[in-house]
Amino acid sequence: MLRLILNLLWLIFGSGIVLAIGYGLAALICFALIVTIPFGVASLRLAYYSLWPFGRTLVTKPGAGLASGIANVLWVVVAGWWLALAHIVAGIAQCVTIIGIPFGIANFKLVPAAFWPLGREVVDLD
């Protein structure tokens, strides 16, 4: 029940909808460029995770190989470092108030996903 309440508050006040829309638009752009479709899939995964982060976590896919590692390096150079930095800054800003601490923690959970998204999947904690 607590996860549901935190996720609903995250959607309304913690920028969950804004993040999901942003990652979704990035996915559409990646799909339109065809060559970047794997990055579009990673962006959709980030949109899904940022929409409902409480009660979920990221795990490494067992079948992720060398191609996803190379693509992750390219992702880090092009977008990953500044997305991770934006989540860190937002998390610090939200942790300034007591009410914002859970939202800041959710932003900190999004840092590894934004930095290195390929070869991972979102799973429930249960």
pLDDT averaged over residues:
90
Identify the strand order in the major beta sheet. 1-2
Task: Spell the H/E element sequence.
Answer: HHHEHHE
First-to-last CA distance: 13 Å
Any idea how many domains?
1
Structural key phrases:
single chain; 126 residues; mainly alpha; 5 helices; globular; UCP028777; Inner_membrane_protein
Walkthrough of the structure:
The protein is mainly alpha-helical and 126 residues long. It has one domain. The chain is built from 5 helices and 2 strands. Strands 1-2 form a two-stranded antiparallel ribbon. It is globular, with a radius of gyration of 14 Å. The two termini are 13 Å apart. The model has no long low-confidence stretch (mean pLDDT 90).
Short description:
The protein has helices at 2-13, 16-32, 37-51, 66-94, 101-115, and strands at residues 56-60, 120-124. With 126 residues, it is mostly helical.
Layout of helices and strands, plus pairs?
Elements (H helix, E strand, L loop, with lengths): L1 H12 L2 H17 L4 H15 L4 E5 L5 H29 L6 H15 L4 E5 L2
Antiparallel strand pairs: 1-2
Helix pairs in contact: 2-3, 4-5
